[in-house]
Design brief:
globular
Length: 181
C-alpha cells in the first residue's frame, strides 16, 4: 500500500474521531447526569493535557529515536483509556478517564506531523493532499455521527468513537517507517 494512503488514512481517522467526540461527547456526558460545570471541567482537561503532555511524549520520542513506536503507542493508549468510559460513573471516574485519554491523545498529532514531513522527504507540496483527508474525516464524522444520533441512543457514541480509534490504531500500525525511527 502506498505511503500516501497509509498517511492519509491516519489523518482521516484522527480527525474523524475529533469530529465525532468533540461534537457530541458533551451531550453524552449531560445524559449521564453530569452538571454543566462538571462537563466544562472534563472537556477542559483535554486542553490542559494538550499543553502539558506533548512535550513529554516528544522528549521520549526524540531521546530514544522511537517516533514510530510513539505514534502507535499513542493510538493504543488512547483506545485503551477511552474504553474506561464504558465502565466509569460519576464525575471523578470520568475525570480520571478523560485525563488519561487526553494525555495519550495529545501525543499523536505532533509526532505524526513530523513523521509525515519525514515521509515526504522534502516534497512538502504533497502535505496538503495527505492532510486533506483529515478534513474529509472530520466533516464526514460530524455529519454522519449527527445523523446516526438523531435516531439512535447517545450511548452508541462510545461505540462509534471506539471504532474510529480502532481504525486509527490500524492505520498507525500500517504506517511506513520513518528514517528517524
Amino acid at each position: 500500500m502506498s505511503p500516501y494512503w497509509r498517511l492519509s488514512g491516519w489523518y482521516l481517522f484522527y480527525f474523524a474521531y475529533i469530529g465525532g467526540f468533540s461534537s457530541f461527547f458533551t451531550l453524552y456526558l449531560q445524559q449521564r447526569s453530569l452538571s454543566a460545570w462538571e462537563i466544562g471541567v472534563l472537556m477542559s482537561a483535554i486542553q490542559l493535557m494538550r499543553l502539558v503532555a506533548p512535550a513529554g511524549w516528544g522528549w521520549i520520542a526524540d531521546r530514544y529515536g522511537r517516533r514510530d513506536a510513539m505514534v502507535k503507542a499513542s493510538g493504543i493508549l488512547t483506545l485503551a483509556s477511552f474504553a474506561g468510559f464504558f465502565v466509569v460513573d460519576g464525575f471523578a471516574g470520568h475525570l480520571f478517564v478523560m485525563i488519561a485519554m487526553a494525555a495519550a491523545w495529545s501525543a499523536a498529532l505532533p509526532l505524526m506531523e513530523a513523521k509525515t514531513l519525514d515521509a515526504l522527504r522534502g516534497r512538502v507540496e504533497g502535505y496538503g493532499r495527505i492532510r486533506l483527508w483529515g478534513s474529509v474525516g472530520f466533516i464526514a464524522a460530524v455529519v454522519g455521527v449527527g445523523a446516526w444520533l438523531e435516531t439512535r441512543p447517545l450511548a452508541s457514541l462510545l461505540w462509534i468513537c471506539t471504532a474510529l480509534l480502532v481504525g486509527l490504531v490500524a492505520c498507525a500500525i500500517a504506517l511506513p517507517p520513518s528514517s528517524t525511527g
